[in-house]
């Protein structure tokens, strides 16, 4: 059984509305371009496909896409966009669930590897990706660099958004390599704030490279964003591509 928290019906119903920036053409255009090029004429498998924010437009580009997703509520929202024949989804844990066939590309975006709360499960997720890849196939992860340089000694929280409609901050347990993302979101016209929190196991790129190596994959490319900009010591996130040997 996974340590991932189950995304509720209420979260699923809000997801596409709240993720305006992440669902914008400015974000999705380069994301889909990047993934479509790697898929080539092969099939793609999205771990934690959610409501199909990325999978649906990638399918629209002609790439056959399948998904694994833990929350039936998220899949119910996806099903309003596309049917099972067009984008099949297995309900299950991305660390263990199996989808028939071989894939040119497995991808796991929007920090979602961190929803697996133990190192063992994150390693299993890499192994599961490798099991689904054809020789020469690629596993892509999008993940934030842990923002620990922003955490002064003695403090436990780092704010990441302070705007009129939303207050967001992360709190850290450095000994356990865990963070909790806290959100206070203005809900409706009466000015009240809704409180939400999600737990994550953060990891640096180097730890992911080791997980990939355990799974038999080799780092091919690491960039700072979907536009291919170089990854540097100032980068706040990375897109990493590991390859199964031919
Ligand atoms: C931030 S959303 C990302 C959804 C989609 N990939 C996107 O980019 O919009 C995280 C998703 O991961 C799913 N999830 C979390 N843990 C999971 C697991 N162990 N196996 C499969 N899906 C999981 C959640 O249900 C949720 O749909």
UniProtKB/TrEMBL annotation:
Transmembrane segments: none annotated. This is Methyltransferase. It comes from the Bacteria. Keywords: Methyltransferase, Transferase. CDD domains: AdoMet_MTases. It holds the Pfam family Methyltransf_25. Residues 45-137 form the Methyltransferase domain. The keyword Zinc does not apply. One of its GO terms (molecular function) is methyltransferase activity. It comes from Streptomyces fuscichromogenes. GO terms for biological process: methylation.
